[in-house]
Amino acid sequence: MEYLIRFSQSHETFRVAEIQALAIVAGFNMEIIHYDAESPFCVVRLPSEEAARTLIKRSIIAQSIHEHWGTGGTFDELHAEVKKKTSELWPKYKTASFKISLDNYQGTRPNKQRVALFNSFSYLPFSGEIKMKDPDEEFTIFEQWDFKAVERNLPAPLKVHFGRYIAPSGRDLCLKFDLKKRGYISTTSMDSELALITANIALAAPGKLFYDPFVGTGSFPIACAQWGALAFGSDIDGRSIRGEGKKKSLKGNFEQYGLQQMLGDMFVCDLTNSPVRRRRILDGILCDPPYGVREGLKVLGCRDPEKEPWVVEKGKLIYKEPDFIPPKKPYSFLAMLDDILQFATDTLVDNGRLSFWMPTANDEQQEMGVPTHPCMENVVVCTQVFNKWTRRLITYRRLPDSEVDSEALAQKRSHVPTNGVTADELNPFRRHYFNGFRAQAAVDSAIEAAPK
Amino acid sequence: MKILSLNFLTCAVKACKSSSASYPLHPKDAELVQDDIELNPQLLVNLMPRIDWSALSTTATELGFPALPAQPPTPEELEADEQKLKDLHNLLMQTQIMEGKLVCGNCGHEYAVREGIANFLLPSHLV
Ligand SMILES: [Zn+2]
């Protein structure tokens, strides 16, 4: 049977990635019959109505799912298809109470036209009561209008669909997990909508282990726990995990939502010297690595032990104190992403997913490519566009070893990474951020032209 | 820190990774608490192939739990035996080290656990 998914109008590039991931989580096949990015209406084939309910229940980006009765470029085409495809279904709804709704995307209909549209479906042999509130069945006319249809006074929509309502999505969870109502957050906390979507795309589900190596105040582990996974996290800064304690801590956030049963553990560590055993134990890794905009990225260690021997010596003396914070050295954003990919390769189970957020400037010249690793297959890239920069959610699948290109892997292993020196040299995003995203050449020539 | 987590963690010092003495870390002066967590059979069955059983046996003995059987239970055995499930659940999921230290058997470094949160940051001379 075909079903129509009604998406919300935000984060368009995440739509297909999310529902495809949810079909994988639920373990059934989903075929996309029709979808284009200009429209919030997507027609898919699913094995059953039960499957449709299961799929949509966890979707954040969708609003609802409907049994698809027909689609047309005009209402004549739509009626012809509804008559041809669904007449066998009609007797089921003969005596049910019902209503017909209109959902127009980018368009409007005056009341008179609405009534005429509803009446055009009067060939449906429904004799039940028409109930506006809590009817047994709700049928919806979906209209997809062209951009700015009202201002342009367009006469008719581009496309129309008709469907029988089945179930709402999990979108209300965005409100439940809203950061404004969360006990403990920071300026870098991922908003609830995108955290829940990220956890969906990474296939978080009951019985699985998920890990966030840059956990902050715990947005991702909370989203994973909401989907039933056991959630682990770590951070180089233990203060972000502890917060002020009680309600204002990462653990307090889990308790606020009644998710403490799904809290694995939180610990303090640095990804470059991680205590996590390199064994294939994790089902998913998701993170929003520090961009290093406010300060250069840091990892543990002295920048130059020969010039700063006192740091080493002092460390030897005081590191056993509970509040000891080790000195840090600059760390390239790209080197960090490389480390994340290698860590994921070493710790994810077959087909386990890595999803991380990565910022770039909105300029092709400055765009950083999608980092690669022979063991990690890029599944999908979703994009959130801001005024001058973009952030991308990049998702990979850990290939089973039998699918890995062994030559590429051997080459990767022989590659020795080069180390830069200053935070700016190391981090292209940070450099462009401070240069206001002007093309690098323009910056360089401006520096040359400046009076000496 | 759960006993489960202890099974997934080793010494953070790079030079220790190749030494079998660095794993598992040994609890020292450990204050244990028992959390009340609902039994999740699906999770335990999924966990079994990822658990290093001999390391878990070492940890259990060091913390004063009864000795574990020599071989890990198969998924079928677990699903059929409620008591086995409960015992494992109690050890892996409900037992927490709230305060204490985790000691590497290779380099001797001690990682502090405070309020259930272990700290694996290394001083410069160990990085
Ligand atoms: Zn060690």
UniProtKB/TrEMBL annotation, chain A:
GO process annotations (BP): tRNA methylation
A Pfam family recorded for this sequence: UPF0020
The EC number(s) this enzyme carries: 2.1.1.214
Compartments, record wording: Cytoplasm
Span of domain Ribosomal RNA large subunit methyltransferase K/L-like methyltransferase: 182-295
Molecular functions per Gene Ontology: tRNA (guanine(10)-N2)-methyltransferase activity; tRNA binding
Record domain tRNA (guanine(10)-N(2))-methyltransferase TRMT11 N-terminal: where: 1-171
Keyword NAD: no
One GO term describing the cellular component: cytoplasm
UniProt enzyme class: transferase
InterPro entries: DNA_methylase_N6_adenine_CS, RlmKL-like_Mtase, SAM-dependent_MTases_sf, TRMT11, TRMT11_N
Domain of life: Eukaryota
Sorted UniProt keywords: Cytoplasm, Methyltransferase, RNA-binding, S-adenosyl-L-methionine, Transferase, tRNA processing, tRNA-binding
Family named by the database record: Belongs to the class I-like SAM-binding methyltransferase superfamily. TRM11 methyltransferase family.
Name assigned to this protein: tRNA (guanine(10)-N(2))-methyltransferase
Taxonomic lineage from the root: Eukaryota, Fungi, Dikarya, Ascomycota, Pezizomycotina
From TrEMBL, chain B:
GO molecular function: protein heterodimerization activity; protein methyltransferase activity; rRNA (guanine) methyltransferase activity; tRNA (guanine(10)-N2)-methyltransferase activity
Family annotation (InterPro entries): Trm112, Trm112-like
Pfam families the UniProt entry points to: Trm112p
GO biological process terms held by the UniProt record: maturation of LSU-rRNA; maturation of SSU-rRNA; rRNA (guanine-N7)-methylation; tRNA methylation; tRNA wobble uridine modification
Keywords of the record: Cytoplasm, Nucleus
Location (main, coarse): cytoplasm
Compartments where found: Cytoplasm; Nucleus
Record-level GO cellular component terms: cytoplasm; eRF1 methyltransferase complex; nucleus; tRNA (m2G10) methyltransferase complex
Membership in a protein family: Belongs to the TRM112 family.
Protein name: Multifunctional methyltransferase subunit trm112
Organism of origin: Pseudomassariella vexata
